[in-house]
From TrEMBL:
This is Methylenetetrahydrofolate reductase (NADPH). The keyword NADP applies. It comes from Amphiprion ocellaris. It catalyses: (6S)-5-methyl-5,6,7,8-tetrahydrofolate + NADP(+) = (6R)-5,10-methylene-5,6,7,8-tetrahydrofolate + NADPH + H(+). Homodimer. Its EC number is 1.5.1.53. GO terms for cellular component: cytosol.
Amino acid sequence: MVNQVQRGDGNCQSCKSDSSGSNSGGESSKESSRCSTPVLDADRSDRLRDKMRRRMESGDRWFSLEFFPPRTASGAVNLISRFDRMGSGGPLFIDITWHPAGDPGSDKETSSMMIASTAVNYCGLESILHLTCCNQTKEKITDYLTKAKRLGLKNIMALRGDPLGEDWEEEEEGFNYAVDLVKHIRSEFDDYFDICVAGYPTGHPEAESYEDDLRHLKEKVDAGADFVITQLFFRADTFLKFLEDCRAIGITCPILPGIFPIQGYQSLRQLVKLSKLEVPEDITKVIEPIKDNDAAIRNYGIQQAVEMCRVLLESGKVPGLHFYTLNREVATMEVLRQLGLWIEDPRRPLPWAVSAHPKRKVEDVRPIFWASRPKSYIYRTQDWDEFPNGRWGNSSSPAFGELNDYYLFYLKSKSSKDALLQMWGEELMSEESVNEIFTCYITAQPNRRGHKVLCLPWNDEPLASETNLLKDELEKVNRRGVLTINSQPNINGKPSTDPIVGWGPAGGYVFQKAYLEFFTSSENVTALLKVLKKYEPRVNYHIVNVHGRNLTNAPDMQPNAVTWGIFPGREIVQPTVVDPVSFMSWKDEAFALWIEQWAKLYEDESPSRMIIKYIHDNYFLVNLVDNDFPLENCLWQVIDDMFELLDVPPELLNDGAVSE
């Protein structure tokens, strides 16, 4: 759909002890929601326990993933990228561990709270936040839960947690057991949170006996826990016996096996030490001779996990698998692929990334401008009380929050400064060298220094498959200084299951108007405005510079639906629009990215920075919509006509100039 949108150190729960004995747009966005469109995907509004129940009733198997908060800010950026990649395989949920030594409830980018919040709000992943009793008062725990609710987190894993020293120390006015935490959550927050607790297939190491630990698990479930995730184990029959024993004493909730694909010798030793488990002798015999060969151990771990998981799934008693990833992706993804559980379905519920925040569940229409920067859009609309539903509205559409926090880890580029300089030029010589960078991005060809341009400030991913349909035309116009940042082809009734442009449920048809958005010089805009006169009313345009010079033929500043779908038994859904009012908010962000993400790579007053600053100060941002979607896209002809007019002697183009 767009130039660069892709079509999505701590401790793991397995190591935790759990001894059990800006302007709000509320009013105006509400006014703009003039019709009620049925939610396309029931999972968007269901709570986690309901999703599990539906999947179990249908016999559909699922998987989930565990991650821990990173130690550094750059690690946080990398982890969010991993969420996007691993989220494409369709996990039912992810969970984030609670690391008491890492300020887990703070607003730091490395905190458990912020990582979980980012997964929900900006990556669209159903998430569980771990919470432990360790070294915490009842009041502090309540504060954390209140904050989690405010951030849109709906699921908690209630744990006792590991002691900070050798032995457990009671906290005055705190809790000593996970069951107390479960009771507190239910007492203070009623049924708002879905609660998960930990189970131990071989019994908790501090429990008096296996049977005693089972009774403690039942106490946690009876206190209000909705489901159980187990500690890791190495034999399928270990879990199956545990499951049978749980059912025998009346634990009826879902119990998910915790799967740990062995990925390295040291990580296995560390986990075994923390969890006080014993590795079976036959596994040790295989591991020891290859302990210095990480690839060999990982390959063995993958096969061992696949075999164990197949036994679990074929038993008919295990509906889902929970994976301890150790923040790595290769082994877990390979296990899931071999099991047939990793399914990257190209059909999306909507053409943009859906937030998992409960208050956004009715949101089903957005301006197209943020298609490549969905996290930025969510950030700028986080204070809205309600979201457009059915139709975007008109010029009274909600105000957008400012975007000054480009440094936030979920808004930063995934690439380092050195990598960006390699891609975008360690030294720029002219505007033409900028054209070359854009062209290299479109063509996926190396730049003049031999480095592939894998992203741009407005697009942090390689070219999307949908944009590849326009690749030849995009290459041609970028070479001549029409610097595209967003585009989509016209589509007239493709099946909703189409692997490139499809979205929504099966059995529907999707439509799109051709759309093109780009930066270009004032000289080009002067010619473009003359050309556009002969394409009205077929082509709508909006042209603006950084100073707010605003040129448009949008009738009455009304939104223009540019993507819509028709599905059996539902109203027409129009998930993306070109809205003149929100374009002015997007304009500020789009121009600022020249400075914030590109110019700041260079020294003050350097020629390279001055070139980027000149473009920022003098170019225009343009969007074009071809309203005749059943016909061949005319926007390329518009650009060709503009170039043809530019070839006319300059003195004939003086009248109507738009430069300041």
